[in-house]
Amino acid sequence: MYAIIRDGGRQYRIAEGETLFVDRREAEPGSQIQFGEVLSIESEGEEFVVGQPLVEGASVTAEVVGEVKGPKIISNRFRRRKGSRTRAGHRQNYTQVRIEKINR
Fold first, then answer.
1. Who has the most CB within 10 Å: 2, 15, 67, 97?
2. What is the 3-state secondary structure (H, E, C) of the chain?
3. Which residues lie below 8 Å from residue 82, measured CB to CB, with a gap of 6+?
4. Domain range holding 20?
5. How many separate domains does the chain show?
6. What is the pLDDT of residue 54?
7. Cβ distance 101 to 16 under 8 Å?
8. Is 95 exposed, middle or buried (0-12, 13-18, 19+ CB in 10 A)?
């Protein structure tokens, strides 16, 4: 069984037991998160349900594993013949969640 959810302007294809990195949230490790925007659900032996735009009454329950950092992204800016160079780094914070149940 898998579902497609929308969170933070992005869509994720998820299944029960998977881990997922979503935008950082103020949540304690071990707490529960509900994803209410379910776009479609497909379960084995049943038909593929597509929402218009969301599936009615569907939600996804996930457990917060912890907070993690993404990869370091380095941006360089260079202006030729001007002696101007800048270098900046960025590391995004994410919340890691484990999908527990797809509620239909």
1. 97
2. CEEEEEECCEEEEEECCCEEEEECCCCCCCCEEEECCEEEEECCCCCEEECCCCCCCCEEEEEEEEEEECCCEEEEEEECCCCEEEEEEECCEEEEEEEEEEEC
3. none
4. 2-103
5. 1
6. 94
7. yes
8. buried
Query: How far is the C-alpha of 2 from the C-alpha of 104, rounded, in Å?
Result: 11
- pTM assigned to the model: 0.83
Q: How far apart are CA 33 and CA 65, in angstroms?
A: 11
Question: What does residue 21 show for φ and ψ, rounded to 5 degrees?
Answer: -105, 115
Token pair belonging to 66:
């912890």
User: Which amino acid belongs to residue 83?
Assistant: G
